[in-house]
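Re: the request from the purification team.
They wanted to know what the chain is likely to look like in 3D before they choose a buffer screen. I agreed to run a prediction and write the result into the notebook, where they can find it.
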Amino acid sequence: MDGKQMLQKYVVVEGHRDVYEQLYRTSIGEKSPIRDGIAPRLIRDGINLCVYAISGDSYSHSQNTGRYLETALDQIDQFLEEAPRSEGMIQMVKTRSDLPDRVEPGTVKFLLHFEGCMPLHGSIHNLRNFYRLGLRSLQPVWNFRNELGDGVWENRTGGGLTNFGVEVIKEANRLGMVVDLSHMNREGFFQSLEVATAPLLVSHANACGMLDNPRNLADDQIKAIVAHGGLVGILALPERVKKGGADIEDLLKHMDYMINLVGIEHLALGMDFVKYDGPRTLKDRHHPLHKDPLIKGFEEIEDLPNLIDGLQKHGYKEAEIALILGGNYLRVLKTILPEQSVI
């Protein structure tokens, strides 16, 4: 069975996609960018569930304003306005029963995520209110320091979780929200595992054993996530795969490495594609006039058949590939999300 056929047969979970394309399309005058552009492409290319970073800590997440709470509300409102106008094409995941158990043609489900908790403004009340609006996943931090702890670009400090960071993780666990340790520095990473009462995951990262990089995970971190019942999603940005540019074969080697380390049941697709994001701000260390670096052969979701074909060439069987595509992610989400909305 080739890659395109497998995409039609098995549920595929995209573990991390940013809101930047939505913001860019809105900025150039599109009225319904998710309904008219993003969702149809996800469906066309085989995505059944998308973990969607509707806001977060990067300056770009705040529409380049620094008003994180207000813009998060704007972006969630746009999603909630567009979804009902999509005639069932766009659906939101709030509970376990909302998760897809099979491929549903013409539909894509979104699990709303914060890539960093600056929008909370240090308030646990805001966390609960975002939950009421449909937020079901969060990263305590992004690359920098916020009110919850330190990101990977703050490693010099040796700082970890704050008291508020501990409070957010515990409340997220109580509510049935995913806690994602992507971008968290080493100290905060292990402190999060100590205080959590539910499985944690890392939605988009690769292996330091293949490339020593602040955004990648050391072997003991990968093993710790797995021991806690979680998983790791691969990251499809070349600077996290190999120095001096990367192709799909280099990414497959990261996948082999992690599978050999902890087993195929704990690897998923995080990806974090940037091809259609539009310009980003220099405050995020992205040059808005430079072309984004892309992995040769795996630039966006339309290239998923290439990844599947590569996994087959590396000796993985159909059932194993199905776990990577979405089976593992669905299994873990079923252990975290609530059976029904808590509040």
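For the purification team: The chain has a mean pLDDT of 96.
Please add any questions underneath this entry.
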